[in-house]
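pasting for the record
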Amino acid sequence: MLPIDTFMVESPAATMQDSTRPTPPTCPPEPRDPDHARNVQKMDLGPEGIKPMKRACNDCRQQKLRCDVVQFPFTPCSRCKRLGKNCDVDTMFKRIGRRDKLSEMQREIEELRWKLGRATQGGPAVVPVPRPNIEQRMSSGTMGTPSTLMRELGRFKLTGDLLDDLFSQFFTLYHQFLPFLDPQKNPDYYFDLCPVLGWSIAMVGARKFHKEPSLRADLTYDYVRLLWATIADIPHSYHVTKALCLLCFWPLPTEGLQKDPTSQLASLMMQIALQNMLHLDFKAQVPFRGELSASEQRDRLMTWAACNIVAESTSTSLGLPPNTVYEGVLGSDFTFLSPYQLPDDLVAQLRISQFCNNFTKTLYCNNIGTNRLLAESRRADALESLQAQYSRLQMALSNHLSVIVQLHLYAAAVHLHAFAFFLPVDSLARRLALDELFAAVCAFLQAVMNHETSTGTLLEHTSNFISQTIFSSTFVLVKLLNGPPSKHMDTERGKALFNGIILAAGRMSIAKDDLPSRVGTRVPHLWRALGGGKEWVEDRPDPTVLRIQSWMGVSHVYDCHWAWKEQCKQKVGGHGNGTALNESNARGACGGGQGGLGSDAETMEALNPTDWAFLDWATIPI
């Protein structure tokens, strides 16, 4: 909400009063003596012989009082002399209404109360850059302020300095993962463009904001209300899709997948983008769309590219059918993008997401069977063909392989090779494909650990696509290193990467019991339940054979939890669905004895298999 002193326009009523109010005569009545009249007229003229305009001094004008100031030669008015005030006459001066002054004072009082409340709660008080008050700005004629305006979100008000820090945090640490916004624009530009976009940038910047650790949690409730109020306000500006891009790429933490609206928001984002015709060529004849400037064309194109990247990464990481649209303005080879000089990383990510869309539709979106998988006889050939396409893509992007693009490319390889779990059991193609999957997982996790070691900022600020791929890779290692493929794999390297990711999972956590914290706490129990990395023997079930095959490239994640739950139920005597395992039974069933995590009461409470916060197991089709 803009402060009341941002713009100030004199009311028409005041102007009318000034124009209708009788004014003292500018010259005395003409005397009978013509010589005396000429002398008086000569005395009232200005230094250049021009008759000056009669104007009250600033203080009398503010109080709407009659003023007898004389400008040539300057003589203070009798009121200012009597009250001991400086009598100034400024042609740029405008009256300030009493309500405006009270509003300014009220704003300053609320800002001081907010800073005092933050200081008493243990957080550092934010001191804004000193700004001239409303009277100083009005008298000097400068209405703008050099610092960012204070903004209000629900019950909270954020000063300009705090917003500057949040935006700086976003464009320094997060923007590189999805570079479709302009870092040269100030926060006021984004707030004026679309309030929910400005707050979305601030919320992403507050995810790991060490100056105000509780700021994200404090703003979440009011931010969510603003988000849904904006969505309910139809029609939408295409700038709303930018906010949804950020929210889906860095979602708010939730206690479980059932409460995570990321997939719904991604679908809504694509629908709003389509309604704003971002998918159409700029030369298309659309009656109600006027001519677009070159900068607006580029902005719309970058927004549409970001929407497809976010929508594809969301569906791929969650195992859902894609809802992307690469036809139309983007085309198949992206030649239309060249004149607009889009960031290389954005175009590279767009090509990677298009490849993910291609293999997802080829392998998982067929009208065959209940799971819509490709026919079993064609799976090995299709996977081999897609691997060749991946190699060509890797060669094409070799000149644009920044660290972020490289991670996205490795992540795409992990999701592609996860199809190895769907190849015919005991076939040579399956064994070779599982080896390729292990190599892809190791390459991806090694790249993540290398970048984290060199910068120390990747895991804290990474996108949802990278973090979800890390978790998916962790479950791949759980299956491969505890199953028959471990006999001909580098198990020591796999175990080292597994331990490193488990230890580093806490750096990705931004709230208690969010997905990274659940993975870091509970996956070790799953690892022990499936064998603890010991050599696989034939009397144990093969964990690489999936019972759940309906979640595309992440089916192995849900299958892992299903197997863990079944094993825990058998060891404690067969608890039914909805029956919680108590602490002692969970510790004994899941290996939580000495040397494990079993002594932590919160960890044991989290071991309830019906509350793993992924899905209700009774609703998962096998």
